[in-house]
Specification:
By secondary structure, this protein is mainly alpha-helical. It has 4 helices and no strands. The model has no long low-confidence stretch (mean pLDDT 87).
């Protein structure tokens, strides 16, 4: 599938400081999992409808759930916004607002 979303090296480098430390067993490929989570959210899909290129849908959901509960994604958004001196609440639209 050529329309899959993949984070670039530059995007991953900006996000890595926000990742929690891995304890014990190494995590599954962060780029693959985060790209899958973004793809699911951008397209409004169910976890089970994730393309197999992103790995098992259960892995995508478990990472999303665990990192959401720990506030990892919220810290990512706040940190990225702070890089651009944004002091207001930052939100990502759940649909394509250009259409």
């Amino acid at each position: 599938m050529s329309d899959l979303f993949w984070l670039t090296d530059a995007q991953m480098a900006r996000l890595e400081p926000f990742f929690p430390k891995s304890h014990g067993k190494p995590r599954v490929d962060d780029r693959r999992v985060l790209s899958g989570i973004i793809f699911i959210n951008r397209n409004g899909l169910r976890w089970r409808d994730a393309p197999t290129a992103y790995g098992p849908h259960k892995t995508l959901y478990n990472r999303w759930k665990r990192w959401s509960d720990k506030g990892i994604f919220a810290r990512m958004m706040a940190g990225l916004a702070a890089e651009h001196s944004e002091t207001k609440t930052v939100m990502i639209p759940s649909r394509d607002i250009t259409a």
